[in-house]
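Morning F.,

Quick status update on the modeling queue. The single chain you submitted on Monday has been processed. Sequence for confirmation:
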Amino acid sequence: MIGLVTVLVAAMLLQALYSFKRLKGLQTKHNELTLTLRKVQQDLVEESERSKRMETELQQQVKSNDTLLKAERKRIAADLHDDIVQRMVVVRLRLEQLSYYPLPERAKKEVLLLHRELENIMADIRYLIDDLVQPKFEIQSFSTLIHELVARLSRIIHRKVEFKVQYEQDEFFIQPYIKRELYYIIQEAAQNSLNHSTASVLLISLRWEDTLWVVIEDDGQGLLQRGRGKGYGTESIKQRAGAIGAELIIRSRTPGLVILLGYRNSQ
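Structure tokens below.
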């Protein structure tokens, strides 16, 4: 009987020892997992802090670069206006003075052509100066931008340029970089018309629906008669339109040319 009790006690002790060892192993594993978890949490905290520091540094760098970019734009614009434009004004005045001299008819025509081309170049530089100085694509509505473009064209080119806008109250948000590309398409088309089409009237119209529709039309020569064939003045327009996913249709007619530009509201 005593032997049986001894065996049972020994078995219970062995079971208890096994359970104790198992519990100790589980406790050790738990402690290891806890330490690992704390290390991971600490690493995450440190990584988060590093990410925040990097984000702050990047934001400061972007802000600094933006400030430098604006300052450089103003410097270049000032250099263009105070140096290049003023020198061109002098050349323009000299050409005007030449027109009063008794010159052969052929020479007079050449002077007039040079004078006109110089005016066009000066107008282009003024557009460039304006774009460099003003962050207009971020702060102005698209309708306002085109209205101001038409006003400048009329003032500088001294030609009849009309502007119409429909459903302006429905104007939707357009990302600044897309707004810029649409603006340059219209500017390029308008300048090509005024400089090369011999049109008497240029009409630019906007219609705001689910899609912004822009129509640029004139009563001048068709596309093939504007100096360099079908590709003249259209490649940059096509590239810009394709880059932003805008629909573009260019059609010659008699008389004139029609450019239809469509940009769908993506919001």
